[in-house]
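Pasting as-is:
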Amino acid sequence: MKHPSTLAPILLALFCAAPPASAQNDTGRSLSHEAVVSAPVAKVWAAFTDPEVIVQWMGVAKAEMDLALGGRFSTNYHPDEAIGDPNTIEHEILAFEPERMLTLRLVGCPPELDLEMLHQTWYVLRFEPLADGTTKVTGTGHGYGEGAEWDELYAFGEVGNAWTFQQLVKHFETGEGPDRTETKAMVDMFAGAGTADADTLAAAPIAIVSATQDATQDAAQATASDVLLPGLSQRKAVLGVFTDLVGGSWTATGQWRGGPAFEQTQTFEWGLEGNIVHVRTTGQLDAEGNVGPRSEGVRAWDASRSAFGFWEFDRFGGVTAGSCGVDDGVLWYQYEYTMGDSSRTMRDTWRKLGPDHYEFKVGLWGDGEWEQVLLDGECKRGRPAPDSTDESR
């Protein structure tokens, strides 16, 4: 079978499209990305529909657009070819609303790609003008199936579409487009054209080997993911740790260094279809020992910082925010905490000891190590919380 992957970092990944949902019994999996672009909606719409603008940021060498129902949107990444030559990528316009929506399906692609498989997916772009003059762009690919080849296509789409949106944002912020050498290397590698030579690898470190080489496929995809979308591996690692925590209550206990006993219970639930984590904390509220809901928070990927973060809002009006991540399987939170007239870097860690048991630490952190552990305790799974249903799903 021909290689099923799209040209993930570029338009073939972004604009795969297929018959409307009404023509199918099963619309399959969906994959969405969004970005806020520093430009009015008219200019952002032109970035997807005006060939002169398209070639400035998408990395394509040639582009043609017939913006009409049933019209064609065609691109070619090879400077020495013309539209209509073998490496042309062609999409049919299924529907559009000027400056609001564009829906496409793939009807032509280079011969080494599996058009039959790609034709089962379709792509919807939505444009939302915001009050501050910027524009929110949301792209959703539909129709992804199940199985190893579909998983590969989905993974490439996840990385490639995010990379494409980053190029869009960069274009309007800096006026720059993607590096041509980098783009060509990605086209060659994701199309399954084979391993790049040494010069190409040196010039474009994102290049990956052909996905037909199973022995190196996983490592190659990981390398491409980290370069095309910095932090993707960390994002997946953090969400993977929360998979073990979601759906029940966890009680942390310990003794503050030179102070009182500590006990808090947290519940973890998915939000936004598994893209963020809601956390609710119950603990001591006052010196009299009264216990009740103490705080609620979110753990989520922060695209503006290319990092995973957390935000905690307590009932007393306080807000704690910082970063979180995973090192050697240990979940950590890091944040600044005011002590008197100074601010100190704090870290909380959860180290898994068993399916229902974690080591739990809180302390001062500096230069990559503990300066002082203030709480050395444990956290154990309790009964699923009766009110832990995520109403947003």
